[in-house]
Write a structure and sequence with these properties.
Blueprint: E1 2-11, E2 14-24, E3 29-33, H1 40-47, E4 55-60, E5 63-64, H2 70-76, E6 78-81, H3 93-100, H4 110-123, H5 125-129, H6 140-152, E7 158-162, H7 170-185, E8 189-194, H8 197-202, E9 206-211, E10 214-220, H9 221-225, H10 228-234, H11 237-243
Helix pairs in contact: 3-6
The structure holds adenosine-5'-triphosphate.
């Protein structure tokens, strides 16, 4: 579905990604793990067209994403739930969700939008309960669910999730991962960026490890969980509290 070949991305003279290559097949959940500043968000933003790579190529369903605007990329079927949520605080939960479908705002899409809304409300019942509440008054976990729900409203073929568990209490982390697992079962293709490596690996098919802008390891998620280097560097105390 997605092929990334030798991408390098810069912020001015600072190089944040160095010759990164990866691929995602339809139906897979692939996680990208790495420490703070490794370049994970940069990679997602490069895929979604927010950043332009200095070199390399990204191909989605046989089409090059070169020079395409973020809007065109959403239209092709890639949607991102950004780190830090970035919801519209002064709009209601429902309005935020509807904004996620703004590229499908024609009259004829109305029925499909209503179905999607229903599906998302089933997936995240709390959003249904709080439909008319200002999004800024939701808790951190609820805002995270809203960011994911809003991305799903675009009917993405590929969903990019940036640190969905960031800043959440263990109980909510579990809930978020259970929801991602549910999306996976429904067949949604997901690229998941996470610092909570154990939880991410537990629900992924494959994973890549990014260090200082370079991919240093990749493989089957189950194998990486048992890799001594991954265990030492990334499977810290956090996950044990949540998963054991
Ligand atoms: P975290 O887990 O902390 O979110 P990350 O792996 O997502 O980290 P990035 O946000 O992609 O890392 O940052 C990669 C590198 O690029 C870092 O060294 C960061 O300081 C740098 N960087 C990110 N955004 C900018 C920017 N707008 N201008 C300059 N440098 C930036």
């Amino acid at each position: 579905m997605l092929k990334i070949k030798n991408i390098s991305t810069f912020y001015g003279r600072i190089q944040a990604l160095r010759n990164v290559s990866l691929h995602i097949q339809s139906g897979e959940v692939v996680s990208l793990i790495g420490a703070n500043g490794a370049g994970k968000t940069t990679l997602l933003n490069t895929i979604s067209g927010i950043l332009t790579p200095g070199s390399g190529e990204i191909v989605f369903e046989e089409q090059s994403l070169k020079s395409l605007s973020p809007e065109r990329i959403v239209r092709l079927g890639i949607s991102q739930a950004p780190e830090g949520r970035q919801i519209f605080a002064h709009h209601t939960v429902l309005e935020n969700l509807e904004l996620g479908a703004y590229l499908r705002s024609r009259r004829k899409d109305r029925e499909q939008r209503a179905q999607d809304l229903e599906r998302i409300c089933q997936l995240f019942p709390v959003l249904d309960e709080r439909k008319n509440q200002f999004a800024g008054t939701l808790s951190g976990g609820e805002q995270q669910m809203l960011a994911i729900g809003r991305a799903l409203m675009a009917r993405p073929k590929l969903l990019l999730l940036d640190e969905p568990s960031m800043g959440l209490a263990p109980k909510l982390v579990r809930e978020i991962f259970e929801n991602i697992f549910r999306l996976r079962k429904e067949g949604t293709t997901i690229l998941l960026v996470e610092q909570n490596a154990r939880a991410a690996l537990a629900i992924s098919d494959r994973a890549y490890v990014l260090e200082n802008g370079r991919l240093v390891l990749q493989g089957d998620a189950r194998e990486l969980i048992n890799d001594p280097e991954v265990r030492r560097a990334y499977l810290g105390k956090d996950y044990r509290e949540v998963w054991e």
